[in-house]
Amino acid sequence: QVLLVESGGGLVQTGGSLRLSCAASGRTFGTSTMGWFRQAPGKEREFVASISWSGGRIVYADSVKGRFSISRDNAKNTLYLQMYRLKPEDTAVYYCAADVNGSGFKYDYWGQGTQVTVSS
Fold it and tell me: Assuming Cys at both sites, which of 31, 36, 62, 69 could form a disulfide with 48, CB separation 3.0 to 4.6 Å?
């Protein structure tokens, strides 16, 4: 069992920055691939970024490449998403998720989400 709690969301102006955190409980965080997803109103949930357990493999959605940075601290059981040059289209609820088997596509545990709103 993995419990995930996101924080760090808020209201920011276009061009601003935010750093999201995802605190994880449970013994499998250090061996899990972790991901960030987001869901905007009226839209499907979409992949944002993922990071392997060691941090050696990182994948970004094209829409955030060059602006967002995913990282993790296994000693603190925490996942991060640093977001720069935010745009109104980044407005969404952001979720972290754990892929405990490292499948790369099946995420077993999800947080409750944190709202990010980018004003124009």
Answer: 36
